[in-house]
Amino acid sequence: MTGHHQTLALLLFSAFVAVTLAITTWVSRNRHGSAEEFYAGGRLFSPLENGFAIAGDYMSAASFLGVTGLIALFGYDGLLYVVGFLVAWLLVLFLVAELVRNCGRFTLADVVAARMSERPVRIAAGTSSVTVSVLYLVAQMVGAGSLVALLLGRTSEAAQAWTVIGVGALMVIYVSLGGMRATTWIQIVKAVLLLGGTIALTVLVVLRFHGDVDRLLLTAAERSGHGDAFLAPGLKYGGSWTARFDFISLGLALVLGTAGLPHILSRFYTVPTARAARRSVLWSIGLIGGFYLMTIILGFGAAAIVGPEAVRGSNAAGNTAVPLLALDLGGGADSTGGTVLFAIVAAVAFATILAVVAGITLASSASVAHDLYASLRRRRTEPRSEVAVARVASVGIGVVAIGLGLLARDLNVAFLVGLAFAVAASANLPVLMYSLFWRGFTTRGAVWAVYGGLVPALGLVVLSPVVSGSPESLFPGVDFQYFPLQNPGLVSIPLGFLAGWLGTVTSAEVPDEAKHAETEVRSLTGAGAV
Amino acid sequence: MRYDDPWYDALASGWGESDGSGVPAPVPAQQAGEERGVAAADVYLEVQRSAAFQEVRSRYRRFVVPGVAVFLTWYVGYVVTATTAPGLMARPVAGALNVAMLAGLGQFLTTFLLAWAYARHARLRRDRAALELRWDTQELTRSVRGGAL
């Protein structure tokens, strides 16, 4: 890779940064500083805008680069990820989007705390939301560091560290100055760029095979060296039963975790009504589904055009499959077309990471200020001072994410994302489902549901081969591995639901009928919604 | 149907006037201050027990419960089959297409179809009734709180 790629990619990326900073300053110029404005962007986005923003929040670099790489290397097994990422949205659409929009104000804890004794529930839900966000954030930061190294050819540790710090600083600026309004517009710009880039590459791949997708797949299978097995499951997750259960665990976490991701939940508050929330989810399902269908083409296209050996030679995890494909589609390493396409893909990947990171930071700073700070300080805080706390919190979270991102530099990005989904599904989903649909749910049940999912999920990861006991683990020297699976979801998600049930049936508290009636009526009709 | 209950009458007075064409009949305000909070909670209980709300709720559940059951079974079945029976999934169908590819594309297709069906069901069967309930409920809570909101 020559210097031309890097210069052009840097120029394009600087343009994106300039545009997003311009958006941020423009938005923060006439802001009112209210909580409504900071957390929810004034709640007046249209379903179309919010649909693009949700898609922008969800389509991370992990899917654009990671999943296409997995498909290029392992064929069909990479496609299994994509299906889980998409099907998860049905759960969000059916059970979460409208009801959460109707019941809550800014965070997940709002929905749960409405029915319960507020303080312990808010602290529990706030803690788990921040934990999920930080895990997801670290995944994106680690991704940013390694991507810069890969795409710009600077593999020195210092360059990676400065990239992580730079991304962290930018996201803190976006969030603390621009709040939800700036973050939403950044997501929209990024979603348009990412979709545009993906469409262009997909069209080029299909044109290369004269519109014959069948031949594209057959060529990919042939070049992979696996033959027909490349187009069927089993290359990555086929081996031992541990690997198979690991995949089932990941599949469960993916499909159940999306509905518990704080930065996705907070997006439903940016539209005026539940109906608008539903329509924005419909938009995002269309956009995300189309995007993932194209990533399948790109993945198999990379296998057919670039070839798995070349992909693996550039990056063992396959993260550079799409940039390599772009280089080839444009006409090769030394052509202008190749240089331009490569630079575009690199810039889009950076933009993706930056936007996703901003969305998560905003959601977690909302949890810190609105849930944790507001409950830990007994006195009623004014909305205005709460926003000030949220701005400070976004700086704090930025510092924590930069620190952890530097520490976890060598961890696998896809694993961290899977872990964030597993924790979200274990700690956030049970409490959300119970408080929306179970009449007898009590405060103790809510608190137990959160910690009963959060603690096992994190504990099982510590005891898993990811942390110790194998050459690839975080601490290869020691062995305290007692749990065979890398993803805890298969065990911790049922535990979260079980703990919530157990806490409810053992508590002496009589569930408040009227509060349940209020939640039910509000969630389905929108009465009293802000 | 008849309810021997003051709230039902108040509810009925606002019925069908949610388009703003009529002014809802005033509801006699509660006198004692501490009764107001209790009464506001009663509004939700009363609305929850009303036939109109029960209808909206059962329409929602009748679609969502089977819907979630179907797509979760289909997805979990797909993942479990892919991991435990790769031989079945590898069976060729036509050209490069095999059972696995068809199942994967089928997941995309059913997701789009179910999302469309849900939106259509909500728009045609739920939205109007829910909106009317919303205005009526808000009207009731407002009058219970003595117009303070």
From TrEMBL, chain A:
InterPro entries: Na/Glc_symporter_sf, Na/solute_symporter, Sodium:Solute_Symporter. The keyword Transport applies. The chain crosses the membrane at residues 6-27, 79-100, 121-139, 159-177, 189-209, 247-269, 281-306, 340-366, 387-407, 413-434, 446-467, 487-505. The keyword DNA-binding does not apply. It is a multi-pass membrane protein. Keywords: Cell membrane, Membrane, Symport, Transmembrane, Transmembrane helix, Transport. Pfam families: SSF (PF00474). It is found in: Cell membrane. Belongs to the sodium:solute symporter (SSF) (TC 2.A.21) family. This is Cation acetate symporter.
